[in-house]
Amino acid sequence: MLERHYKPRENSPVSSSVWEGWIWLLLLAFAVRVVGLDAQGMWRDEVDQWRFALQSWDTLLENFTRPGWNGPLFQVLLRGWITLAGESTYALRYFSLLWGVVGVALVYALGRRLLGARGAAWSALMAATAPYLVWYAQEVKMYTWWPVLALVILYAADCALARRRWAGLIVAVVALGLAVYSHILAPLIVPVALIWGLTHMRRDWRVIVGMAALLLVIGLISLPLLRWQAPLLLQQRETGFPSYTLRQMIEILFSGWSSGMWANLTLPSMPIWQRTLLALFGGLALVGLIDLLRRKRVRVLVRLLTWMSVPLLMLWGISQLYGPLFTDRYLIWCAPAFCFLIGAGCARLQKFAPRWITPLLLLLVLGANGRVLVAQATHPIKPEFDEVSRYLAEHREPDELLLFQIPYNHYVMDYYLTAPLNPWAAAPFSNWRLPSGEYKVDDVDKEMARLTEGHDEVWLIYSEVLLWDERELVKAWLDAHGEATAAQHYHRVSLYHYRLPK
Length: 502
Known about the structure:
This protein is mainly alpha-helical. It folds into two domains: 16-236 and 243-378, no CATH class; 385-499. The protein is 61% helix and 6% strand. The protein has a five-stranded mixed β-sheet, with helices on both faces. A hairpin with a 2-residue loop joins strand 4 and strand 5. Helix 5 packs across helix 7 and helix 9 runs antiparallel to helix 14.
């Protein structure tokens, strides 16, 4: 009786107007993702995916069992896409764009089961225009492909429980099998799917037992991963991730899901417009939560809250025990649950408020998200290595040394530069510390003299310096031993030219 308003809609006819609205939503999702697709330059994580995808097929297959390797299946898929579309920034990111649009379609499909047609439409509108989801649909990473698999898992499991058929479970488990080789933290969806099964109004214990049996099969499929993952979970280690409290994690996710790629800002430092976005979407989500409680749709609410909270709590617990692992994009697949709460809130207001509320809601959602989408497309956020490469192409002579600080960024420049990267060198690492806290390296004189020997023209590519040389010893050496003849400053990367004495 508590769930008397909830009727599975898989057999209900879909009107032509619903199909038309669904198509317009997908066109909108495509449009906001394709505009500005290559407005931001490629950064090192994206270039890594390009590099890894172009490895030999033997290496690509070995990556499925290589310790510490994340996303081997995505790299195989990207390799196939590169064969078809090429290696330009636009072509590489288009692959993620396509999965982002598929994700919006799945949000609508799952939303119809959870919230009905009106709630599904609002949820899909939010997913179509959410700056956070659009951002990762414009990045060469697995963060649109893996959320698609998560949506397939939950949708198929929900269908299986409603229809008492095994076909849905098989689809869900196949998708889970693909997911564990698409992202290292994909297994966090398992408790979410199990709780969904336990809270389903039409749960059938035979189906749930079948789900558990099929999960054992996935465990066997995942054994190559577990061989290296399990030992890592038994020891504390340096992970390279910042350490966050649970409250900070929640703030980062809420900020990102509401206002896009300014998620690193804490509440006190946020501009007023961003606080307004948090208040708007947080308020709509709260209305949706209250409406689900008021209509006694408790099971639907529990599933949505489980989707948002359980993976976060598990990741926080792992981080506390074994070392920091949190970064907001690892939980991007939980963002649709936030969209569903917003969709439920918008549907509630549309149904029971005056008629003028509908165009006002549309204006608020599209205007707020559009404001951030324009900013993401027109303001540099990623390091502008593409601009650095253009300047070097015009001003660097073939025998002039490129010096990288940090060295890993030479892969990014290798992607952009058409001329040979050589000669190039990795600037010395000076951040080693003794147990007492003192620096192990006090000067870089000998190493810099060795690296620059035979070169009287040096280009210093300067980015993320704190990770490598927080005292800036390398630049200080060049300032002391050479003449600075040019300096170009771009977003998160600078380029300096030095002339050294012969």
